[in-house]
Batch of 2 targets.
Target 1
Amino acid sequence: MRVRRVIASSSVLIASLLAVAGCNQKVDLTAVQQFAETTATAGSSFNALASDFATSCRRRRPFVVDPKLLARIDAPLAPAYRTPPQSMPSPAATAALTATPTPAATLAPVFDDHAALVSGARALSNCGPEDNISAEWQKRNDIVVGYVRSLGSLANLDAVPTFGGLGSALVQNRVISETQDKAFQNLLNAIALSATRAGQEDAIARASVATKEPLRDAVSALKSVDSDYANVLEAEYHATFSTYTQLICDELLAAGHATGGSSVGRCFIPPTFPTTIPAASRERLRQETQQLLGAVQAINARRQATIGYADALDAIVATNDELATKASGKLSLPDVVAICKKHLIDLATAVGDVTKAVQ
Amino acid sequence: VAALSSAQIGDLSNHYTDLAGATRAILNNTTIQLTRGQAAALSADLTTLSTIGANLATTAAQVAFDHADDAFNKISSATKDANAEASRLSSQAAHITAVVDVLGAVVTLGGSFGSGNPLTVLKAVSALETAVQKSKST
């Protein structure tokens, strides 16, 4: 009777263990691996973008000319009479009528207020604050990317103990047969896999719940800085465009090929330069135009990258949010795979856009 | 400026870059005739507005980072925990494997006594020593 009870109990135990073994087949982690690899790629691309915050300042710097200097060179307006308001003649108007025209070199610069605004904030040639932002941005990108990679490492963990050493010793000493060894190896591996997987799932669940809100806040800050970077690029664009167009315009005016003659009017970059311009000048103008177009294309590519960067951050937050939501119940490794798979395309596309733009 | 939020400073930056864009539009407008002086003045304005916009953007970025310090610290902390857990699981697996290998070496040693061959026993003892050392290091 007692033997039967033992056999019955053993059967139940073995059946349970086999059931555990059956439920704990290895999960296909390809999606998680790809997610982790894509995030690793994102790290270097994100940092290239962050680094460009300061580099953009350095590219812009040669084009930022002191407005006072420009005003001295180009201030063409001599003092002139102005009709005073009829009801209250102004002493200034009388003074203007009788004043000796002031030489252009001593005229009050037109841009004094603007110059004060710019140089009051900091020197035009100083990119120190941008250097700080680049360094901070990289550091904080690394924090977010590092977090996603740690989740990937947890999910991809190959940390199942092996029992081969004991099994072969038992077989060699004829304690058990090879068939029995194989069956017990499978069982023990399944139990070990189950224990490891439970540890992985718990750790991923804890991490995603703990970072749900902080990651949103952090990504919101990163996107805000991304938007600020877009403004920095726009400033570079204006400075570059303005400088080159003025340079080209001046050359065309000097050569007498610009609209409106040499002193009045605007000139534009013609689609094809007039053939009457000497070959040497034409070549220089062509090169300058090419440089301008190249610079603008590079700026536009980086502006495109800012969109990809924000999209990639959104994909990371969406993934973490879903993991955390699922973790409020029971998060399993297949859930992690499914969630990573769902957001992988968005992440990969966005990271691809950033990578392409910063290359 | 410090009293403003990052978003507010960012908005200011946007306004300046918008103004710079509008200034450039005037410069590029084919129907507006400007003297060279006016064009140069607008160019200088454009540069100035752009510079102010960029400076404000830099300030906004710094404020955004300062404001989110706590969030980044929490993420760093969670990352450390996750990495520690991954490391613990790996060590645990390695340790169990090593202990199982010790058991295997003990079984082999037991079997070697029945062989009657002192060399076999010595080999089994040596294997057990190695397995014990390995289990201690995991």
Target 2
Amino acid sequence: VRTRRGSGDLESEVLAALWAAEHPLTVGEVVEAVDAKLAHNTVHTILTRLHAKGAVVREPVGRAHVYSPLLDDAGLLAHRMHAVLDAGTDQAAVLSQFVGTLSPEQETTLARLVGRRRARGRSRGERA
Amino acid sequence: VTVAIFVCLACAAAFGPTVAVLCRRLPPGIATWLLSTGSVISAAATCTALGLLSSPWLVQIPLVADVGEWSRPALAAGDPVFTPLAAAAAAILAVSMARGTSEALRAVRRLTAIARLVETLPTDRELYVVCDDQQRRAFALPGRPGHIVVTSALLKALDAAERRALLAHERAHLTRHHHLHLVAVRIAAAASPLLSPAARAAALSCERWADELAATGVGRTAVAAALTKAAGHLPAGGPNGSMAMAASHVEERVQALYAPRPRVQSWRLLVPTLLLISMLVCDGDAAARLTHLLEFAELH
């Protein structure tokens, strides 16, 4: 029994497939990599949306496009956040790790990180 | 007073180990709810019992007796609690409350830190990928809406069905607010160390719950395969010894996924429910007796 997936869920799956691939993918290749039963158009719409959000880069190849994931600002933040959690873990500890077992040093690093992000967000807001 | 209180404390002591064992035989959703709400009720009942045990002695302190306008000789005559016992109960209660409060404050601080972090992320996307080709990791960041963070190494290791399983698992953590269950059970266990087996069981139970929810969408095999691959390349040796536990959890979760889906068997809930009810009844009984004592002391 497969539950119906929302478009947000599918969006994450498409992004995950692009990250998992070794090279940029065409729309057809993304369909293959996510779920061969999906309509070409659906995936194309999702890729366009991801492109608009700045999560993927699109390059023209012949008359079509190839898509690859983009390490953007948010990805960099996630990367630093991930570095904060440098205690080894796996699926089993992920949630409890993040909610429960930050050491005091990790907590201060996290707080500093948040402070910096907020300051940057504010200055960007003033410029706009 | 004393008998009821000791029955209550005995039930509270039995609750933690009982549910920890029982939860492996219950569907993980029910198990998680039982662990979190049961632990909170049990911790509250324990603190109430300790309070009731110590209050006949506390109200005999001259200042307290004066404020309540209770007759101290009448209290002394009617007080059936042995003084050192009552004093010990008061001390244990103070320590429990302090530990529970500090754990609660810590949880609030952490959740606010996460909430602030999530605020800085754009809300239009669910998944964030960390470019890390060494470590296979994934976690859920609770918030409105929550986010999923996964390393590229983990995504590269999985096929399409396994990636879907991984996302469904993390999404289940977010939609069912698993972090709140874990926080609740941790606060309860801080206040009452007798509940620490329940706190450990809750961590596993939340993961099992997310596994089962993911399995309804993508199938049990895909979830089990994703789990095995994610755990396959664990970085050697965690700094806090969390590794061994995590690894054994994975094994247990994979086995549970290959076993038939757990069914609801309501008779298994009988013992923990009876324990919880007896705690509340005993507390109520002891409270009624204490009220009688104070009314009696007020008249004299």
